[in-house]
Amino acid sequence: GGGAYGAAKAGGSFDLVRFVQQPQVLARIVSAVFALIVFACLVGDGYSSLPEDPHLFCIFNHNEDACRYGIGIGVLAFLACIFFFMVDVYFPQISNTTDRKYLVLADLGFSGLWTFLWFIGFCFLTNQWSWTRPGDVYIGADSARAAITFSFFSIFSW
Question: GO CC annotations (predicted)?
């Protein structure tokens, strides 16, 4: 039946299968996986060192900000996905339409902001990767490309 802000009337029982089949829940799961991939690629192989110097540097043109930005938005996006996933679980139990409205607007606003930040991250990582000398990257090139690719995919999943 009819409800407020895209959910059924408050107080119904929780159906896991129906919940997981909702488009916003599927998009949130995909966004969390993409954020986890970007974060893991940059933490795992985003830093390297030269054989003669044990000091770690970011493989994106030795620009520490590129790695920090990718890791930062990846971690925050993953945590936000978990938070909004919990909101999605709890949402049908909220009877106050004003609270529902604010949660939907917060979700919409955060998703818009994070879409923009993923776009900036994709452009930044791609630019820094294009300036990276091939001789500076012994390992981690595939992880760098994966971080760029999933940053691009994240633009659309958010």
Answer: neuromuscular junction; synaptic vesicle membrane
What does the pLDDT look like over 61-98, one tens digit per residue?
999 999 999 999 999 999 999 999 999 988 888 888 89
* Strand residue runs (E) in 11-155: 47-50, 53-58
- Is residue 125 a contact partner of residue 66, using CB atoms and an 8 Å limit? yes
**Mean pLDDT for the stretch of residues 92-112:** 91
Are the C-beta atoms of 38 and 70 separated by less than 8 Å?
Answer: yes
Cα gap 151→50, rounded to integer Å: 27
Distance CA 140, CA 124 (A): 17
* Structural tokens at position 120: 């900036």
In the chain, where the domains are located: 28-52+61-157
Distance CA 137, CA 134 (A): 6
Tokens of 11: 């107080």
Contact present, 91 and 100 (Cβ < 8 Å): yes
Q: How many CB atoms lie within 10 A of CB 111?
A: 18
